[in-house]
Structure formats: C-alpha cells, structure tokens
C-alpha cells in the first residue's frame, strides 16, 4: 500500500506535470489541451466520428479503490456515475441480438469466472476521421447499445448550436439505427450512420447497400477503421492498467490518448495532402470508368439515370419496418373494412335475388362470386 502511494502517485503527478507544461491549458482557456482536432470544423460543417469498443482494457476488482479523483478529470473519460445513470434510465438498450453481422465482440470470448473478477469490462470510445481521440467511457457490461447512444448524446450536446452535422461510423450501425427506430427515438436531425468499409462485408447484402461508407453521401473515402488503429496502440497498456486503481488507470489512459492525438496532429498536413491526392486519383478513375460504361450502354443513359438507380437500390434494400409511411395513405384496417363491407353487400343482394327453395343455384353463384 505504501509502495503504491509513494511510487504510483509520484509517477502520476510527474506525467500530469509534463502534460500541463506542454499544453499550458491552465494558463489560458484559449490554449489547446490536446483534446480538439485542428482539422475538424468547430462550427458550420460536417464532422465524421468513428466509434468502437475495446474489451482488452479491463480492470480487476482486486486492484483496489481510489483515494483521490483523476488528475486529468474528465478531459477524455466521462464520469462513471453519468454512464451508470444513463444505463439505468435506458434498460432496453441491451446487447445487439440481430444476426446481420458475422463479427463477434471480444467479451463473448471471456469466461464467466473472468467476468466476475473484473469490474470494468472494457472501454468504449470515439475519434474523429483524422483519428484524434474525442471521448471515452468505461464499460461495466457487454457491448450494449446504450454506450454508442451515450456517446452520440454527449457529442450532440458538445456541438449544439454550432451547426455541425455529425456522421457516425460504427461496426453495428445498422442494429443501432433499427433499435432507435423501433423505440421511437429516431435519428436526430443532422446525424447519419454508416458501417466501416471493412466491417460492412460481414453484414447482409441489404445492409451493405444501406450503410456502406462508399455508398452514403457525406462520408467520402473515410474507411471508418480509425478506432482499430487507436486500439492497436492502446492495447499495449492493458497489462499495466488492469492492476491499477480507477483514478491512476484513467490518468494513464488519458496520457496515452493525449500522446496519440498529439502524434497524429503533428504531421496532419502531410496526411491531408496524401488523402487529397488519393481522392483526386479516385475521382479521375471513377469518371473514366463511368464514361466508358455510358458509351457502351445500348440506349441513351445519362449520369442522372445512374444516380437514380443508386437511390432506387437503397430504397428497395431498406426493410419494410424502416420505411416511412406516407401521411396521405389510407390505413390497412380501413381498406380491409371497406372490402369486407362491399363483399357483404354483394352477398346480401345476391341472396335476395333467389326465392326460397332454389338453394342449389344460390350455392353455385356464391362459390363463383367468392372465387372472383
């Protein structure tokens, strides 16, 4: 206990001191503390966010409790109490049960004995399209839909009244979209969802059409796999953080995330130039391919026709339960009622045309009328 208090606390204070000296965020509110992406819009624009869960960053119950709050506060991680309160108020946000994805979450590989020994089952987080870490939270269950919904709510509040459209990329965005549609929440205005370019091939064909980043407008050439690269860097800390107290663990992970974001933003201009060159090459190649296809078409087809086919393809692939019913459509029960009432009046008028005793002819006419 004394060793942890002397050594662990002093190391945490040393790292925190270097972090404050590097950013100087405590001296002026206008200074960047390393949590904001320099390339993403701060207002009036579109921001692409990738979300994912990491079940390797666990914490053992036997690692003790914290005496003090984390030195970094909630600069990167949301308060556990806020997440737990949200989970209690959204008990319907259970784990995804849809079978559209063939990918299995990492927590399914853990045994029951292992789960009883840990109090934090992993980390759920989000980063921007430039792979700058944004916000994270500790998970105490499996991969529940409440975690991405909480992240969406937090980022929506952060960019409220700033006219920023949020485009989220999530491995099971199709399940999340369907769940929010079923519960009546709906997707807030200015928010759209997609599945990462690699993960989408593990989904059904209709969801590949509906949620691929290559098919939806506004996502460009973003592959959505930025969180996987971030987890690859952060997994090296799992052996250390699982033995730490909650506050020391959050401080170390926050320091690692700040370092990762600083490393990404240092040569961000080089990455943007490379992505711009790639986008120009893809655009030029696509234009040549489309022109060649249109020339070989048997009839006069324009690019507008191709665009219309793409829109029709997405509309046809959309499940019936997600399609919005037009407001001027007559309800089904009214149509059925009118049809049955019309049939009843026909049978009653047919019955009045025949005198009593002519049941044979009446029965044959009724059968013919029913078959019609």
- What value does the Rg take, in angstroms? 29 Å
Number of strands: 7
Quickly count the helices: 13
Largest sheet: 5 strands, mixed
Unreliable spans are: none
Tell the overall outline: globular
How many domains make up the 3D coordinates?
2
| Span of the ends, CA to CA | 87 Å
Strand order, sheet with most strands: 5-4-1-6-7
**Fraction of residues in helix:** 40-55%
Overall pLDDT score: 79
Strand % is: 5-15%
Question: Structural class per helix/strand content?
Answer: alpha/beta
Give the helices and strands as they follow along the chain.
Answer: HEEHHEEEHEHEHHHHHHHH
Keyword list:
372 residues; alpha/beta; 2 domains; five-stranded mixed β-sheet; two-stranded antiparallel ribbon; 13 helices; 7 strands; 11% strand; globular
Summarize the structure.
With 372 residues, the chain is of the alpha/beta class. Helix content is 48%, strand content 11%.
Overview of the molecule:
By secondary structure, the protein is an alpha/beta fold. It has 2 domains: 39-266, no CATH class; 283-322. Helices cover 48% and strands 11% of the residues. It contains 13 helices and 7 strands. It has helices spanning 2-23, 80-89, 112-116, 146-158, 173-182, 205-211, 226-234, 238-241, 246-266, 268-296, 303-317, 332-352, 359-371, and strands at 45-54, 59-60, 118-120, 122-128, 133-139, 164-170, 191-194. It has a 5-stranded mixed β-sheet, with helices on both faces. Strands 2-3 form a two-stranded antiparallel sheet. α1 (2-23) packs parallel to α9 (246-266) and α6 packs across α11 (303-317). The termini are far apart.
